[in-house]
Amino acid sequence: MKVLLINPPYPFEESPTPPFGIMSLAAFIREKGIEVSIEDYIIAPYTRERAKRVVEDFRPDIIGATGVTMNIKRSLEILEDYKAVAPMSFTVLGGPHVTFDAEDILGRNPFVDGVVRGEGELTLLELTESLGRKEDLSGILGMSYRSGGSIVHNQTRPFIEDINILPYPARDLVELNKYKAMGFPINMVTSRGCPHKCIFCVGSKMVGRKVRYFDVKRVVDEFEMLSKMGFNQINIVDDLFTSHKNRCIAICDEIVKRGIEHPWTAFARVDTVSKDLLTAMKKAGCSMLCFGIESGNQEILDTIKKKITLEKCRQAVDLCNETGIAPMASYILGLPGETAETIRTTMDFARSLTPHYGYHILAPFPGTEVREMCDLYGLRILTSDWDRYDANQCVADTGLVPYQEIDEIVAEFNAGIKRYVESAIRRKEAGESLSPSDEDMIKKLSSFFVVKDIIMKELVESYRGLNGGAGKNEILDDFSAYVSSSTGHPGGITREIIENLVGMKALALSEKEGAARVTWN
After folding, report:
1. pLDDT tier at 159 (50, 70, 90 boundaries)?
2. Helix axes 310-323 and 340-353, enclosed angle (nearest 10)
3. In this structure, are residues 478 and 515 in contact, taking their beta carbons and an 8 Å threshold?
4. pLDDT in the model for residue 515
5. pLDDT value at position 470?
6. What's the CATH code of the domain at 42?
7. What sign for the dihedral angle of Cα 357, 362, 367, 373?
8. Burial degree of 419 (CB within 10 A; 0-12, 13-18, 19+)
9. Are residues 467 and 414 in the same domain?
10. Number of C-beta neighbours around residue 163 at 10 A
């Protein structure tokens, strides 16, 4: 059996990381002898011609795609294209959106043959085995599919009890160097599960309320491996990395013991941090902790079942500042009970707490309590156009403040950031001296836009190279000129960025068939 896994496009502006979920699926089924390929359309442009070429080359038996709510429509469009060129392949979707929207997905999209609900490793493996034996799908827990003109939802699969049976994600199937070139971090998990029941989140439904842990040695082995890949940062993306204090400290102590020095970040709750824990994390290289604070109004926090207090928020941020870890706070506007007054309170609280903060707007995703019980929470769902569920615009109305005002507040906040960046660029162009942080910001932005064009225009792949024997500087000059003429970016900046990409080993210079070329490493 051959399985093709598809990662649909996702905005570069959202700082995507390598597709952890499908890399984990790929690693697990590959270990069982199944041939797997990944098409990652975050760092490769999607076209129907490419889909046809992939199918002709790989000839997959199963074509699977993932997607979150905001890109599920694009995921469906791509899967439909693949089904058209590979009608005999079994097409399947997985991920948080389809887990809680399987009935509608199968009902509206005849080109989708099945949905994998919840954790996918065991379900996808059993699907490949059943299809290989030409058996029906009735015995596969966690599967939804059509049978006899009806949609069937098999019993929910229990969560994997011991996640240490899972291999490291198949990162070798993804062009990691393109993510590295963009300046994006690389991610890893040390556990699965979230013990909390916030009404706006499907985390505990998707991966369970019981937190299941990878062994400390395995965690640090993987961390050490990632630290040698040249990424500027490792993100630990557990729902709640700090859920088990002693284990967190054990991980940090082992990182220090091995002499691994690499910056990393994690997610935490304000009621799970202490001075000794944060001290250990800082010593192990933690540079930033992200807290979902959500609101500056205690009544709203109680309504959404966050189970934290504003005082705990202040204490956690103070502890971070005291131990040298930058605290990042995120807030959600438009939660149940939101009024013009509570918005002002939240914004005042955010400004007073930490300079590192941001706003999103409530997106009631399928499976969330706030969507399933919207009447109880006084919310009116404005649309089920999933493209609008990017958490940057209102898709629900509290009835207590015009939703257009919330849109304007978040738009103005984001516009303020943009104006600051544009002002810094103008000052630099005028010859003014900038702060080191502003200089670094502009340098990273310049690199971001140049590299984005190199990737999405496939300029490395289309570059013809020079005659064999050309020196390094000659190749870099020629390729930089090619990129500059193809994109309009200034030649000097482009040359500097490309040389930096070679230095970080994202790009390589090679000679093939008598021509000196530039390739992705």
Report:
1. very high
2. 20
3. no
4. 83
5. 82
6. 3.40.50.280
7. positive
8. exposed
9. no
10. 21
